[in-house]
Amino acid sequence: MRWKSNFDSAYSKYGHKMNKYLIIIIIFSLSSCDSTKTPTKKNKIQIEKTTKTYIQTVHKLSLNLKSAVTMKPKQQIKVSGNINDMIHNYSLQVITSNGIIDFFDNNNQKIFRINLAHIKDSDDKSRPPRIYSIDFNKISDFLVVSEGSAGTLNLFKITATNQVLLRTGSQGFLMKKAFWVSKNEVLIALLSNEIILYNIQTKKDEYTIKISHAPFTDLVMNNNKAFVSDESGNIVIINVTDGSIQRTITGIHRDKVFQLDYKPPYILSGGQDRLVSLFNENTGEAQTMEAMFPVYAVALSPSLNYLAYALNDNNDILVVNRNNHNKLWILKGHKISVNRIIFINDHEIISSGNDETILFWELK
Fold it and tell me: pTM of this prediction?
């Protein structure tokens, strides 16, 4: 055996200085790294994944607010609790920290709400669960990640008449966000920065991929692509169908990325380093804009003509023309940190903070 001849040679040369069992360990390690060994197909795939890392050209844009117009909200509404997130699919749905999902019509009037069942805390007291994530599919099913009892997290499918528990996760399986992929498949992001494609019909994981050792921060999905950010500052693009890593965007953010938005071909990100990045996946180039405070919320308009982000510790929002980089509007009205910005179109924005207030803006 080849390793034995390596051992005999090494022991005759270094045996007086080293323990023979240590030499065996070293020889086995060297043999497993032998450059003449042909990689298996699995090894080849892993090599391809880890080498597609892009440190792209970064263009830094100045923060000149002299021409920006200050604007007040057109309307504001109160919801049932402190807002964790919201989505807009023809109308507005809002998830809160007290286990309630509020539903609004096209005129922003509350039409009904859904209460999740109370949970038991560590003191065996009943309380409403905190809701972390919500998504919506074409057949009007909502996908919700919420607190469970005894430190667990639950994944629910919710309709107007029914709440179906799809999965429960305990320590080591802490779900933070989930999206519909198909009628029977959901994409789940764990705090441990693992992404799972889960089949709710077979109750089996179709794949699990570990993005990095840094804790997960955000996930956005568009068609067959998913974008994952974490506390390292990197952004990873994955193919949702097979879980393959397409690209790792690095060299932009120096710290934790808080939020992402994606509208092809642009991925917008905001982070702890007070930077906003606009990355073009076609050219591999990025533009960065400064903020005056960690950036908790970012958004792109559907036409890609505008972008918006949380600007400063006064809880203002800055709206920028993406084409010429002009700073157009500063939206003033939030009394607490902004956590979500949504463009309805190029002229309407909805925004929320970590309180009970949603603000509506008309850009003109």
Answer: 0.84
Q: Which distant-in-sequence residues (6+ apart) come within 8 Å of 327 by Cβ? A: 63, 64, 65, 67, 68, 318, 319, 320
In contact, 218 and 225? CB cutoff 8 Å? no
Q: Which pLDDT score is estimated for 228?
A: 98
In what order do the strands lie in the sheet containing 175-180? 175-180, 185-190, 194-199, 204-210
Going by their DSSP bridges, the two strands 306-310 and 298-300 should be labelled as: antiparallel
In the chain the first and final C-alpha atoms are separated, in Å, by 79
Query: Residues of 240-253 as b/e, b for ≥16 C-beta within 10 angstroms?
Result: beebebebbbeebb
pLDDT tens figures, 94-145: 999 999 999 999 888 999 999 999 999 878 889 999 999 999 987 779 999 9
Q: Is 42 helix (H, G, I), strand (E, B) or coil?
A: helix
pLDDT tens per residue across span 44-69: 223 234 434 555 578 888 788 989 99
User: If phi over 0 gives left and psi between -120 and 50 gives alpha, with beta otherwise, what is residue 108?
Assistant: left
Q: What Å distances lie between residue 102 and 96, 146, 240, 248, 343, CA to CA?
A: 8, 15, 30, 36, 19
pLDDT of residue 334: 98
Query: Omega of the bond prior to 129 within 30 degrees of 0, cis?
Result: no
Q: Hey, which residues does 136 pair with through a beta bridge?
A: 142
C-alpha span between 69 and 317 (Å, rounded): 11
